[in-house]
Amino acid sequence: MLIAEPLQKAIDELSKLPSIGKKTAQRLAIHILKDDKESVESLINSLRDLKEKIKLCNECFNIATEDKCDVCKSNKRDRSIICVVEDPSDVISIEKTNEYNGLYHVLGGVLNPLAGVTVEKLKIKELLERVKNEEVKEIILALNPDAEGDATSLYLTKILKEAHIKVTRIARGLPIGGDLEFADSATIGRAFIGRIEL
């Protein structure tokens, strides 16, 4: 079956997104095609703004529109606690729980030598600098409970203990192999309340 080239291109591009198969991409493309021009322009502009106006916080590497993110700028946050996460989507998931009031540090991934992700490619050096320069009393490791997340947690625990910093891990209320991004707020909230010292 022949599909008009612009529609096929839209389907191909949409199917590159995570969790979007060809059928879902086709439904989305046809929905966009049927939608009014103003709605489509609004979508295009929001995607353009996403790429042009969003950057990473120069302190914690969370998503920001300025040099510092809203969390790092806030004087209401507990600056003695830093929660270490894999990527910015984890910050969003944790913030939705309203159970955590400290700062964050986004590693930008987890250790995975087979995929070429080594210590040098993560924001570990920057975390150690923050620990040295700030009044940090506790580091909470909130990495996904899979092999790579556990390996990263073990590595961070070792180097942070050498710096005499209390290291805790969120409780295993999250399923093994699950992602913070897909967990519900209550599960993540319980995991924070039940965190354990490593």
UniProtKB/TrEMBL annotation:
SUPFAM superfamilies: Recombination protein RecR
Biological process terms in GO annotation: DNA recombination; DNA repair
Keywords: DNA damage, DNA recombination, DNA repair, Metal-binding, Zinc, Zinc-finger
Xref: CDD domains: TOPRIM_recR
Domain Toprim as annotated: residue spans: 80-175
Family, per entry: Belongs to the RecR family.
C4-type zinc finger locations on the chain: 57-72
Domain of life: Bacteria
Protein name in the entry: Recombination protein RecR
InterPro entries cross-referenced by the UniProt entry: DNA_Rcmb_RecR, Rcmb_RecR, Rcmb_RecR_Znf, TOPRIM_dom, TOPRIM_RecR
MF terms (GO), sorted A to Z: DNA binding; zinc ion binding
Keyword Zinc-finger in annotation: yes
Protein function: May play a role in DNA repair. It seems to be involved in an RecBC-independent recombinational process of DNA repair. It may act with RecF and RecO.
